Amino acid sequence: MAAVRTSPHSYTRRRPEVEAGCSRTGPCEADGSGKYNLESDVSVSGLSSGSYMASQFHIAQSKRVIGAGLFAGGPYYCAQGSMMTATNACMKLPTSINVASLKSQTQSYANSLLVDPLSNLANSRVFIFSGTRDSVVVPGVVKKQEEYYTSYITSPGAIKTVYDVPAEHGMPTDYYGGGCGLTNLEYINNCNYNGAYEALNHIYGNLQKPSSGAALTGQLILFDQSEFFKLALPSTYGMDTAGYIYVPSSCQSGAKCRLHIVFHGCLQAREKLSDKYARNTGYNQVADLNNFIILYPQAKSNLSNPNGCWDWWGFSSLSYANKNGYQMTGVERMMLRTLGLY
Fold first, then answer.
1. Catalytic annotation on 301?
2. Is 48 a catalytic residue?
3. pLDDT of 307 higher than 80
4. Which of 11, 59, 112, 248 could in theory staple to 218 by disulfide, Cβ–Cβ 3.0 to 4.6 A?
């Protein structure tokens, strides 16, 4: 059952059946079509395991995904299907990461049509952030992500890196969170730095920057994720039964808007933080001023994934990093539904 946020402090339940023609990932437009007026191109971003997932989704769906904002994560396919590699090399030991090997696997996937043609990446725009005090995913690992993308993105200035903010591991904001250089249980850091804006502005350019903690005009909506997983319950694949989507009032009223998908990090999903990540990381304020719809899919813990991370090492499937991955296909369906194509 979906639920709609009607005030800053409470949800009201929508009836289980969905009005004819309406998208389950958002409210109907005035004409009842259930389709937002969205550009066909999409962008993604994520923190930590969400950064790895955002990169996976970008590489796999580069025909549609035009850019990525990557906070505190390493290169695509870094873990190579191994949890041991994920928790060691891909978090702490950058000298153990062989980017040439990762590129070889990427090319193999492309040859098998398991990711979109790599030539699509040439004009992508990528924003990469690593805090100088990050002790969870060390800066050297993040710089391997830059090395990986530099192999594919050829446009001058298309890759922007930020390595000089004294931030611990977390999503940097300019109004919410713990001390910038300290760890906290939410992994959201008040760094006087609007990471959401900086990432989106690099991808799209010429965006209006919101004032710190600006009041919101749209709706944060809790939607049903279950229908996007066909073979088993979402929890089988480390996914929650519900996710969030933020829809500015302008997009509800039919304005031309763009879709951005945000992947939280480990220990930040709905089961741990409720809507704190979706509400307090700055994306929604950027969305209000610049006509973005923000989709926040939600992972969930299970026996193979006790911290509710996104699958970037293979706990749900050996195909976790390509188009056949269960989480990847589920999020693809969410994306296409929001675009009115599924």
1. no
2. yes
3. yes
4. 248
Give me the residue label for tokens 């989704």: 57
Catalytic residue among 58, 169, 202, 264: 169
CA distance 259 to 237: 24
Instruction: Note if the pTM is more than 0.85.
Output: yes
- Find tokens 């903690």 and name the residue: 213
Is residue 101's pLDDT more than 60? yes
**Separation of alpha carbons 97 and 76, rounded Å:** 11
Report the candidate in 161, 122, 123 with the shortest Cα–Cα distance to residue 145: 161
Tell me the per-residue pLDDT of 245-288, one tens digit each, with 9 for 90 and over.
999 999 999 999 999 999 999 999 999 999 999 999 999 999 99
Encoded amino acid at 68, one letter: A
Tell me: the pLDDT tens digits for 187-225? Answer: 999 999 999 999 999 999 999 999 988 899 999 999 999
- Looking at residue 148, the DSSP 8-state letter turns out to be H
More confident residue, 342 or 272: 272
Q: Map tokens 């390595």 to a residue.
A: 163
The greatest distance separating any two alpha carbons of the chain, rounded to the nearest whole angstrom, comes to 56
Q: How many whole angstroms separate alpha carbon 180 and alpha carbon 137?
A: 15
Give the Cα-Cα-Cα angle 193, 198, 199 (nearest 5 degrees).
125
Closest by alpha carbon to 60, among 121, 115, 112? Answer: 115
Known catalytic membership, residue 134: yes
**In this structure, how many other beta carbons lie within 10 angstroms of the beta carbon of residue 188?**
25
Give the Cα-Cα-Cα angle 275, 280, 281 (nearest 5 degrees). 115
Q: Give yes or no for a contact between 94 and 143, defined as CB atoms under 8 angstroms apart.
A: yes
Residue from 134, 240, 288, 311 carrying the catalytic annotation: 134
Query: What are the angstrom distances between the C-alpha of 260 and each of 144, 230, 297?
Result: 24, 24, 11
